[in-house]
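Same chain as my last thread, 358 residues:
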Amino acid sequence: MPRPTTHARVRTPLSVAALAATAALLATACSGPGGVDLGTDWKGASAFALAEVDGLVTVVGVNADKSRAESLAVVPQQADDDRAVGPQIVELADGRWLVTVPRKGGKPDRRYLVNRADHTLDGLRGDERLRRVLPGRTLVAEVAGLPDAKSASGSPESTVLVRNPADWSTRREVKVPGTIGLAASDPASDTVCLGSGSGSGSGTRVTVVRLTDGEVTTVAGPAGLDVTGLACPAGRPVVVGSPAEGASGASGKVRVSVTGNAAGTAVSVDGGRADAVAATGTSIVVAAATGGDTDLVEVDAGTGEELRRARVEGLAGAQHLTRTATGWLVYGEDSVTRVDLGSGATERFDLPGTLLDA
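reply #2:
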């Protein structure tokens, strides 16, 4: 089953001093620093997330089968953490989970691999600052959150670093136009989709980057759509939003329509606010807020025909979607809801703290 876009075990050695310091921090973390209760269900975790618990960043294991989420490890925190920028967690194509922690003063992010076997976080060397990691099939892209260069005409450009996740060596550096506001990838494809510009209609521009050779293709955003989401199944951009005019934006029946062409797919959501999207080559799933609830709607990627839907009552906004073998996980600010789109059944359970990333 293709993994939706929403993404050999190698450790990079730290210096002896840094490794000792990290080991000490992790040993403390396992004892529950700051009153954080740590669970033990590493094996049962279907997915991982980051949450803030009692002021500490923790790696949360989400067991979809048992509808349970618990803190498993405390992320080492240091004085130069950049609290203004949230830490990130992402699943790589080979199943490893990577945590990145931004640092102040332009210093490289700190990075950790989630070690299920040893119940720890393994430190990695980092050499870049403020990068969102987008996993591809054999390569990863690291995307800057702000433009860091200018084109020959003087317009802003952003840098995309293409890396080999086996040893984190840099394969190439690619320049893309504008400030990147939306980013998506597909772990089944070595392509990423990046959105820049304003959120309304033709002001949004999507850049598709092929990681294997650095080829860049730019696509204009769909007219008349306030863009709020982006997916990238098999390297084909799926742009999601609500009509710029005439959308109800309030509670009611969520309607999802699809328009496709050779360049990509536009998904228009009316009757609700599109908060999250996931896509495969055959279907698109949108989480749309309607009043105090959220509708999960799956449509055929080609025809736009509605396939299935379910309502998550009491969830005013979805922050992330993750597909598991036992259903979709819809993340809220302090909870997770498992949704079976086939039956419409939902089961909601608490996160141990406030969601930071998933």
